[in-house]
Inverse folding.
């Protein structure tokens, strides 16, 4: 059985298999291929760093997109 | 007579359109994209939002980027302090690849008036970091000058409250800002009708930013086109030079009597 961790994703709890990278998280929640900004514990994670950046228990992750605004 | 080309200069960027369009409050993305195309706008504002897997179609980056000649200007809406606005600007630049940032810091949702102190502080730091800072401000000539001095690309005084449709209620103050400013002055917020946009341009504004008036119109693409024409007409009138106002009548026809007169 997979060992799991829990992170906070956009303010709500999100379980993830231990050893997951940011890129794994993006494919799990279906935002891969979209233009999302990823912020882990206040640090911006650029696209070329997302498969190397592993997530830890309790990490705060924000995923942001552009929506309509004036 | 050849009229020299007339471009809006913001930092090292030049735009032939002087209408900046916001993308909020449209009924759906298809209508918004049609309005953007109809407006001819080359600078378009967007806002940062959390990704929601149930509403994945909200992502506007792809569809807007697909329109040729569009530069994105993300805003910092949602920020109520300079620190929050700076953080939003960094994230927005990461996503957009654009150096433009509309600094918008309004702590009170009741009236959405911009906080001058936090706005000044955020603008000062972001300009130093190389952003093309476009601060949304109250129509305050002193604040506008201070923002120019710290390196903002423009100042964007409000015509009236966001989404209010009260037009350029601050015209007298905007007139002073324009007279004193070495950077483009862009009326942002409050415009309801194309004639108000034309008026702002006739006063000498560098551009206008419109959102609600187009987004909630009965036919948004048609209204976008109407605003584009009004902005172009107002700019042309400003460049042509408006006549002076006079306190009394000045005849346009000869007053020499000739009908039944004895001479």
């Amino acid at each position: 059985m997979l060992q799991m961790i829990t992170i906070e994703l956009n303010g709500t709890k999100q379980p993830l298999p231990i050893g997951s990278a940011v890129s794994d998280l993006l494919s799990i929640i279906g935002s891969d291929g979209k233009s999302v900004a990823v912020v882990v514990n206040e640090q911006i994670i650029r696209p070329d760093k997302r498969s190397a950046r592993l997530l830890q228990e309790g990490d705060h992750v924000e995923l942001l997109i552009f929506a309509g605004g004036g | 007579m050849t009229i020299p080309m007339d471009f809006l200069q913001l930092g090292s960027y030049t735009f032939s359109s002087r209408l900046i369009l916001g993308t909020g409050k449209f009924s759906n993305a298809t209508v918004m994209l049609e309005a953007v195309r109809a407006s001819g706008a080359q600078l378009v504002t967007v806002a940062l939002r959390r990704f929601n897997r149930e509403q994945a179609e909200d992502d506007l980056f792809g569809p807007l980027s697909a329109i040729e000649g569009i530069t994105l200007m993300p805003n910092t809406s949602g920020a109520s302090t300079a620190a929050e606005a700076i953080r939003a600007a960094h994230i927005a630049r990461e996503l957009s690849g654009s150096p433009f940032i509309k600094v918008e810091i309004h702590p009170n949702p009741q009236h959405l008036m911009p906080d001058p102190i936090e706005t000044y502080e955020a603008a000062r730091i972001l300009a130093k970091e190389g952003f093309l800072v476009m601060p949304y401000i109250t129509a305050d000539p002193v604040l506008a000058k201070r923002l120019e001095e710290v390196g903002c690309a423009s100042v964007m005084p409000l015509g009236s409250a966001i989404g209010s449709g009260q037009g350029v209620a601050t015209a007298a103050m905007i007139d002073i800002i324009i007279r004193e400013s070495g950077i483009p002055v862009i009326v942002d917020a409050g415009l309801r009708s194309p004639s108000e946009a034309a008026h702002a341009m006739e006063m000498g504004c560098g551009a206008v930013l419109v959102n609600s008036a187009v987004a909630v119109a009965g036919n948004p693409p048609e209204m976008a086109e109407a605003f584009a024409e009004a902005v172009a007409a107002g700019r042309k009138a400003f460049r042509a030079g408006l006549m002076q106002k006079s306190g009394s009548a000045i005849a346009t026809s000869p007053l020499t009597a000739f009908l039944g007169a004895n001479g």
